[in-house]
Design brief:
Number of strands: 15
Largest sheet: 7 strands, mixed
Oligomer: single chain
Order of helices and strands: HEEEHHHEHEHEHEHEEEHHHEEHEEEH
Shape: globular
Number of helices: 13
Strand order of the largest sheet: 4-10-9-8-7-5-6
């Protein structure tokens, strides 16, 4: 056991997850690569859990941080803050929400907490609809709406949460239906739940479930849900913490694959917008954002340093069409991985959109999850110079692939080759 790991074990919680049998310390990065304290170089296909969105050590972002730090790092929301206003203007502009207001937080968890506060206050209801297999954060209220047992350490909650079907296409009671019938069945399930409860405040849903293994419904499901929700006055919160900012390739926001009935009432975001800086936030229509009847502030949400980083990062992403790059390079990578998977009995499915790709592993000859194989592939990939993520919900084990959106075709091919060798060494 190395010294840093031993010290980690002495002072940090036992439940704080670490990857690898011999955990690594990442010391620096550049582009799509990182290095550990032993000098090993890795192609990064997980980006700090989908957070390094553009590139490691992106000059435009590091320059913005350095220049802002030389002026002022922090003053709180009690004072006017030019970087915060400028980033809020940019976010509102690209949000797709009319008359949008933006509130910044320090994380996706806090963003979802804020969205729940706004929705329940606006609707005067503490009942929330959530998706099975979902994940929305680590706080008390966010855990209370998380539909993934692996990440839900308590059943206690300040909210009454009801879970509906639809977030997982290829498992569950509706898996054998075609897309149209699947959507119809999920809508019927939603209508049934609404008939058995007091009016909920909101439905919160990830357009593509992140921790749950990059699962998603057919396009249009949440548009169909939206029609039903509007009949009852129920708000729609799109949790875009992992899907936002062009990662799915086809759209800037994941909800735009379900836009036929209009945009969500609230959108939460975090992770990639800061490219490693701690930024989260909520976008909402003015009437919802302004519904609170007491004062509120954020000490660290919207701090000048992170706002400067976020604005530089978002401008870079838009100016260099990284969404388009995610669509093109991600499409090639998915097809390459599907060709490999077709030859391996332990790969149940390669799914995803853009540079948000999941590989679901099972015990060969069965439909049962194989978490040991997922861990083995993770280890083998690291030994080969590739960092991956893993996830999954009820009885699933999934490798998660989410590199920076500036990934090149050559790097995609390099990563696919390493992953192929890791999979073949396991199966």
């Amino acid at each position: 056991m190395n010294d840093l790991y031993s010290r980690h074990r002495q002072v940090l919680p036992d439940w704080l997850a670490l990857y690898y049998d011999e955990p690594i310390e990442i010391t620096h990065g550049e582009g799509r690569h990182v290095w550990d304290s032993a000098g090993n170089k890795y192609l990064d296909f997980f980006g700090g859990i989908l957070t390094t969105m553009t590139a490691h050590a992106l000059p435009e972002v590091t320059k913005a941080i350095s220049e802002q730090a030389a002026r002022i790092i922090h003053s709180s929301t009690l004072y006017l803050n030019r970087p915060m206003v400028e980033l809020a203007e940019r976010v509102a502009q690209v949000s797709g929400i009319p008359d949008a207001r933006v509130f910044f937080t320090t994380s996706g968890t806090e963003a979802n907490d804020t969205a729940l506060l706004l929705a329940t206050a606006h609707r005067r209801s503490n009942t929330v609809l959530a998706m099975r297999n979902s994940y929305h954060g680590r706080s008390f209220s966010a855990v209370g709406i998380t539909g993934n047992r692996s990440w839900s350490p308590t059943s206690l909650s300040p909210l009454q949460t009801l879970y509906v079907h639809g977030g997982v296409r290829t498992r569950g009671p509706f898996a054998e239906l075609d897309d149209r019938a699947f959507v119809d069945a999920c809508v019927a399930d939603l209508r049934d739940i609404l008939g058995h409860t007091r009016p909920p405040a909101a439905l919160i849903a990830e357009p593509i479930q992140g921790v749950g293994g990059f699962t998603s419904p057919p396009d249009g499901l949440y548009a169909a849900f939206r029609e039903v929700l509007q009949e009852h006055g129920v708000l729609w919160i799109a949790d875009e913490v992992q899907t936002g900012w062009g990662r799915t390739g086809d759209h800037l926001w994941g909800w735009q694959a379900h836009a036929q009935s209009g945009p969500p009432d609230l959108v939460t975001f975090a992770k990639g917008i800061g490219n490693g800086s701690s930024i989260g936030g909520v976008i909402a229509r003015a009437e919802i954002m302004n519904c609170l009847d007491a004062n509120s502030i954020s000490t660290f949400g919207g701090t000048q340093l992170t706002m400067a980083a976020g604005l530089a990062n978002l401008n870079y992403l838009l100016e260099h069409d990284l969404q388009g790059n995610a669509r093109r390079v991600g499409g090639l990578l998915i097809e390459r991985l599907r060709a490999v998977a077709a030859q391996l009995p332990g790969v149940r499915e390669v799914r995803g959109r853009g540079l948000m790709i999941g590989i679901e592993l099972v015990r060969p000859g069965t439909d049962e999850a194989d978490p040991q194989a997922a861990s083995a592939v993770l280890e083998a990939a690291r030994e080969g110079g590739l960092l991956l993520g893993k996830g999954g919900g009820h009885n699933t084990s999934v490798l998660r692939i989410a590199p920076p959106l500036s990934l090149t075709v050559a790097e995609a091919e390099e990563g696919a080759a390493i992953l192929e060798r890791a999979l073949r060494s396991t199966y």
